[in-house]
Amino acid sequence: MRTETLALNGRPFFVRRWGAPALPPLLMLHGFPEYGGAWADLAPYLAERFHCIAPDQRGYGQSWAPDGVENYTTSQLVSDMAALIGQIGAPVIVMGHDWGAAVAYGLAMSKPDLVARLIIANGVHPVPFQRAMVAGGPQSEASQYINYLRRDDSHDALAANDFAKMKDLFMAGMDSNWLTEDRKREYLTEWARPGRLKTMIHWYRASPLRIAAPGQPLTDLPDLPVKRLMVRCPHLLIWGERDTALLPVSTQGLEDFAPDLTRITLPGLDHWLIHQDPQVVARVIRDWTNRT
Known about the structure:
Blueprint: E1 2-8, E2 11-18, E3 25-29, E4 51-55, H1 74-88, E5 92-97, H2 99-110, E6 115-121, H3 126-134, H4 138-142, H5 145-149, H6 154-170, H7 181-191, H8 196-206, E7 235-240, E8 261-266, H9 273-276, H10 278-291
Parallel strand pairs: 3-4, 3-5, 5-6, 6-7, 7-8
Antiparallel strand pairs: 1-2, 2-4
């Protein structure tokens, strides 16, 4: 692994790389509450085939972390990664997990000339996800934790007692066997950087997504501009079926927005599939890219 700090739109971003620079570039976008180093389980299994590039995204790790919720709109997060692709040389394969999927989808939808292929691992397109969260059903219930995170003081409560609540939230309802003591210390180091937990959570606070209370569906969603939300490149969705935070209903109707979609479900894995069985995830990616 190699590391460097790049200037993106005039701001510093910390980037990790695996694989030879001459190989096809694969931009890997982490989610919450991770950082670019979270790809260290998967990237080595892809490094003979791809030049893997994993930034700490805005507000995370060692990258630029401005204070203020207004700095974390999706358009700004997408702009950061568009600038990175501009330095890599477009188009690239983009892979997103969890919140990284929001940026990956944003790139594919708004800057299609930058994205050759899109890979999502347990992440969601904004329209099916929003529809599921306002329905008042299982996804609404599973997403109630977002209301807690959006509180002004949630970062202080999660950081108390050596991040006790943060650790519980990280692994709530999930298999944590992959999370070794060394890995826990690595995550704690990243969360403890000054102001970082606050700016990580700003991604939730800045999001316009709405959440219904269980059993109380919201029916006043505005019409969505479907044509502007299309993924027209080849798209792979890898899904750990035991995810308790993102449920299958959150991807229902994805084909309407991604006509060239391949779905691969991995039994026995959950939201943290990129850690639980990186060899299998890597094989799925290699097989799919060889076919498309």
